[in-house]
Design goal:
CATH architecture: 3-Layer(aba) Sandwich
Strand order of the largest sheet: 2-1-5-6-7-8-10-9
Number of strands: 10
Number of helices: 4
Bound molecules: coenzyme A
CATH topology: Aminopeptidase
Helix content: 10-25%
C-alpha cells in the first residue's frame, strides 16, 4: 500500500501527470518533462516509487469517478477532476495498492496561507479499515510547515468523517445551516498547523 501525490509537469508542450510517492523528489528535465527520483527500500533494495504514465493517470481518474458515483450525489465528473489537477494551487493525494488500484483519494487547494480539503473518499469496500486515517495523516504530514490552517466542510450527520477529522486534530469552527441541497446542515472544521518558527539572526 502506498500514498502518492498526483503531480503534473510544467512542460508547455505536453500535459504529463504522474503519481509520485510521498518522499520522492520531483525534478523536471531540460525539456520540462517530469522526472522523479526513485526511492529504494534500504532493507530490500526494492524500487518503491509509484510513477505513472499520463495514460495510466487517466485510467485512475476513471476508476476514481466510479468510486465517486457510488458515494456522492452529485458526484464530481471526470472533467471536474481533470480541472482540479490543472489548477495551479491544487494538491491531490491517493492511497493505492502498489500499482494496482486506487483505494481512496483526497483533493485540496491552497489559497494564501490556508488549505481547503474539497474531497476525501475511500472506496466503499475498504472503509473502516484505517485507510482514511492513513491518507489524511500522510497528507497533513506533507503540508505541515507549508500552511497555517486546513479547512473542510462535512455533513453534520456524517459520523465516520467527523470522527476521522476530530482524530486528526480538527475542531468544529462553525455550523453552516442548510449547507446542502437537501437542506441538511454542514460543519466547517479547521486544523491549526503550527508553522515552523522563522529564525532571524
Ligand atoms: C469518511 C471516510 C473517508 C473515512 O475513511 P475510513 O477509511 O472509512 O476511516 P478509518 O477506517 O480510517 O477510520 C477513521 C475513524 O472513523 C471511524 N469510523 C470509520 N467508519 C465508521 C463508521 N461507519 N461509523 C462510525 N465511525 C467510523 C473509525 O472508528 C476511526 O475513528 P477512531 O480512530 O476514533 O476509531 C470514509 O468512510 C468515506 O469515504 N466515506 C464516504 C465519503 C465521505 O463521507 N467523505 C468525507 C466527506 S467530508
Amino acid at each position: 500500500m502506498v500514498c502518492g501525490y498526483i503531480v503534473k509537469s510544467d512542460s508547455a508542450q505536453q500535459k504529463q501527470y504522474m503519481i509520485m510517492k510521498t518522499g520522492a523528489e520531483r525534478k523536471n528535465d531540460m525539456n520540462g518533462n517530469l522526472r522523479c527520483s526513485i526511492d529504494i527500500d534500504s532493507k530490500t533494495g526494492k524500487k518503491q516509487s509509484v510513477i505513472s504514465t499520463p495514460h495510466e493517470i487517466l485510467e485512475y481518474i476513471d476508476y476514481i469517478c466510479r468510486i465517486e458515483k457510488e458515494t456522492f450525489n452529485p458526484p464530481w465528473t471526470k472533467d471536474d477532476f481533470l480541472k482540479e489537477l490543472e489548477s495551479l494551487d491544487s494538491c491531490s493525494m491517493v492511497i493505492m495498492e502498489e500499482k494496482e488500484k486506487i483505494l481512496g483519494y483526497l483533493f485540496a487547494k491552497k489559497a494564501a496561507d490556508e488549505i481547503n480539503i474539497n474531497k476525501l473518499c475511500i472506496h466503499p469496500d475498504y472503509r473502516g479499515l484505517g485507510y482514511g486515517k492513513t491518507l489524511l495523516g500522510r497528507f497533513i504530514g506533507c503540508i505541515r510547515g507549508k500552511c497555517s490552517r486546513v479547512f473542510l466542510e462535512v455533513a453534520a450527520l456524517n459520523t465516520p468523517a467527523i470522527r476521522l477529522y476530530k482524530g486528526a486534530g480538527f475542531r468544529i469552527n462553525r455550523t453552516r445551516k442548510n449547507l446542502y441541497a437537501d437542506g441538511s446542515d454542514g460543519l466547517e472544521m479547521v486544523l491549526d498547523i503550527l508553522q515552523k518558527p522563522v529564525h532571524v539572526d
